[in-house]
Amino acid sequence: MTWAVRGCSGYGASAGCLFAGVTWGAAWWFLAHDAAGSQSRRYASGWIILAMAVGISISGNRGWMQWPSFFEGHLLTNSGKGEFVAIPRAYGFLWLFIAGVPWAGIGACLLAWSAQGPPLRFRDWVVRLSCAFGGAFIAHLLFNHYPQLFLPLYRDLAGRYADLHANPNLRRLINDNGHAIRHLGFYLGCLGYEISRRDRKNVILILTVGGLNGIGWAALQNWSWAKSFWPTASFNFWRCWESSAGITIGIAYGVAFYLVNRPILPEPPASTPRALENRRPNLERFGAYLGLLLGLGLSIKNGLKGWANIYLGNEAYWNGIVWKIIGPLLVLGSAGLVIFIRLRSVPRNYAGDLFPCSNRIIWTVLVTQNVLAQLVTGPPTVWNEVVFNIYYLLLFIISAVIVHNHAQRLQRPVPSLK
After folding, report:
1. Which range has the worst mean pLDDT, 28-42, 95-109, 150-164, 367-381?
2. Which of 148, 284, 302, 342 is most buried, judged by most C-beta within 10 A?
3. Are 142 and 149 in contact (CB under 8 A)?
């Protein structure tokens, strides 16, 4: 559901990916979090919520609409006039893979940055960030200097690529391919740094999420095959594609969670190993709550804007009205959060639970995002929309049962082995 909302009214591009990112970040953190002060899993920090929200939001700042036609053997040049040239279907699989790897993988890169362990020195962070942004910059240079490597049929269509006014779809293709390559460069730069420092778990995390999602997106083919299965159906197959694309991202993160985030010890030790000591617990609390505040706050803003666009019209006008309310609230909330953390600070290397309200946090995220999803799925007079209202409600029930069961399992005492 969280990914299917992307592209709905109010949730285009990064806004929709932020919606998904903060929800997935909260889910990962909730599943990894131990009520005990010492965490038994490497990726359990409160920073994960903000990291995944930001990472997936950044990766969503691009389009993909020029690639689905590749699966039909068409490279669109001017869709308004129905103009296209023939292209091998293999290009569709290639570009959906290239797009899918960083679309999920950048969130995994930032998730890797939140791993618990010996803190990096300042110069190490400089190198890490230089590798990430340097990778994006190198990809940018390569794309600009060797377009024939990244633009399909570039040599055969050199004249058309030179006349973007008459071939507007090629302009969009240049933008989409360029963004995808730059994001892939960022992803590979992050991966390269973790390989250089021999951080095996970070490498597995980043490779698993990016690789599995790239394969999944290529296999789904933007649901271009749906029209041949149901040729007479008038249905929103685009949203089916978005939902199934979210499923592959979920599978990728789930497999990664199993591979790299199982408990380090059978149960939390009496004294936390130095590698997992939390030297800045108050900063971690601030990061977790800031991620929730910004992620949910902006999602609510975009959801209200989207709802107004569906039922009232004039989206730009209502966006300005909502910003005048949500914007100041976010500023005040951030300031209030700083005051709250300072007034209720915990000592360094605090041994208790930093987030005793973890159940309330995940329920707040789950309910808020599902309400917003219902608001922007309409109007109820359109059957295609009602189908997804029902589908989202079913997914909410499934998610709610899983969250409730997980919370109850954590509260049950562990039986003695004596």
Report:
1. 28-42
2. 302
3. yes
Please, are residues 67 and 179 in contact by the beta-carbon 8 Å criterion? no
Structure tokens at 67: 């690639």
State how far the Cα of 116 lies from the Cα of 118, in Å rounded to an integer.
7
Longest dimension (CA), the chain: 79
**Type of residue at 349:** N
pLDDT digits (tens, 9 = 90+) for 316-349: 899 999 999 999 999 999 999 999 999 999 988 7
Q: CA 103 to CA 56: how far, in whole Å?
A: 7
User: Which residue is associated with the tokens 């618990």?
Assistant: 116
- Of 294, 245, 322, nearest in space to 60 by CA: 245
Helical pair 47-59 and 14-32, crossing angle rounded to 10 deg: 150
**Residue 4 is encoded by which pair of tokens?**
């299917």
- What pLDDT does residue 314 have? 87
Instruction: Say if CB 71 and CB 176 are below 8 A apart.
Output: no
Q: 406: number of CA atoms within 13 Å, CB side? A: 19
Question: What span, in angstroms and rounded, lies between the C-alpha atoms of 250 and 153?
Answer: 34
Nearest to 8 by CA among 25, 20, 22: 20
Chain centroid to CA 233: how far? Answer: 31
Q: Are 371 and 300 in contact (CB under 8 A)?
A: no
Look at residues 244, 220, 295, 396 and name the one whose alpha carbon lies nearest to residue 29.
Answer: 295
Closest CA to 70 of 218, 175, 210, 179: 218
| Residue 199: count of CB within 10 angstroms of its CB | 16
Which residue's entry shows tokens 């893979």?
97
- For residues 376 and 295, what is the distance between their CA atoms, to the nearest angstrom? 17
Task: Give the number of other Cβ atoms within 10 Å of residue 287's Cβ.
Answer: 19
Global confidence as pTM: 0.92
Q: Which two three-digit tokens encode residue 5?
A: 């909302």
Radius of gyration, CA atoms only, the chain: 23
User: DSSP secondary structure string, 364-406?
Assistant: HHHHHHHHHHHHTS--TTSHHHHHHHHHHHHHHHHHHHHHHHH
Taking the C-alpha atoms of residue 418 and residue 416, their distance in angstroms, rounded to an integer, is: 6
